Amino acid sequence: MRKNWGKVNTQLGDFFSASAFLGPSFLGVALFFVAPFAVVVYYSLIKGPMDHSFVGMENYVRVWNNVAFRIAVKNTATFTGAAVPLAVVLSLCLALVLESRIPMKSQFRTFFLSPMMVPVASVILIWQVLFHQSGVVNELAKMVGKEGVDWLNSDHCQVVIVLLFLWKNLGYFMVLFMAALNNIPKTLVEVASVEGASSVRIFFSIKLRYLSPTVLFVTILSIINSFKVFREIYLLTGDYPYDGLYMMQHFMNNMFNALDNQRLSAAAVIMAIAMVILIALLFAVEDWFGKDVEG
Question: What is the mean pLDDT of residues 38-52?
């Protein structure tokens, strides 16, 4: 009996010790993340800041019927759907190239990591010099007999932003994949090579399965960073850019400036739900794809 009582006391002591260490973190998350999001949900369900009467889904319907919101959703989905797969695939390819024995490997790595150290203002200046209507790209096009394009005010505008996104993020994602490649058991690769497996077969059957958690992490990080591209677009084009560059963050920023807290909150909740569903699907795919490795 005493032995069991002592075991209970030990478990209680461990519980209180863990609570003492984790308590500040839980408090911080609740105070700075959970509570503000609950306030956002609340504001999305009331009539206005002065009239707190419950209106249900009325604010969500108003947002969904807003033309600017639909344009923002379409552009954000298009940009994310193009930029995220390109970022994941290209950074993985770069990591595989650096894994092989190539000359000037250090210089190659430095070249792709250097954009991480460049301030955003400098990046915007570089892109303006390159893609302005009288910029370097159009001047080069004219030299070969092509007509210049107003890149930021035409249907080619998202190409400019996708290139900017890739230039800023490929180096960091490449480092993550290089670290993951180094953790793949070398014996498995050597055995597969001895058995006559091709490099392509080794990559898809062994390496890619071990890389699946990193692919998931890089994909989620890319999605988050794709939503942050508003900063660069805003510095390039302002509050109301060409229709092809009007993103969800533009819509919410303009609603904030107009003090329309209800539509702002409803749009934020819609975006949060969409991201949760997307990330849950990514986790499900990764769990299915990497289950053999875990087993």
Answer: 84
DSSP the chain: -HHHHHHHHHHHHHHHHHHHHHHHHHHHHIIIIIHHHHHHHHHHTBS-SS---B-TTHHHHHHHT-HHHHHHHHHHHHHHHHHHHHHHHHHHHHHHHHHS--TTHHHHHHHHHGGGGS-HHHHHHHHHHHHSTTSHHHHHHHHTTPPP--GGGSTTHHHHHHHHHHHHHHHHHHHHHHHHHHTS-HHHHHHHHHTT--HHHHIIIIIHHHHHHHHHHHHHHHHHHHHTTHHHHHHHH-SS--GGG--HHHHHHHHHHTT-HHHHHHHHHHHHHHHHHHHHHHHHHHHHHTHHHH-
Q: Which residue has the tokens 């770069």?
A: 94
* pTM for the whole structure: 0.81
pLDDT > 90: percent of the chain: 13
Residue range 66-294, CATH number: 1.10.3720.10
| Cα 58 from Cα 68, distance rounded (Å) | 17
Higher pLDDT, 106 or 140: 140
- pLDDT for res 49: 76
Of 13-17, 64-68, 241-245, give the range with the top mean pLDDT. 64-68
For residue range 282-292, list pLDDT tens digits in order.
Answer: 888 877 766 65
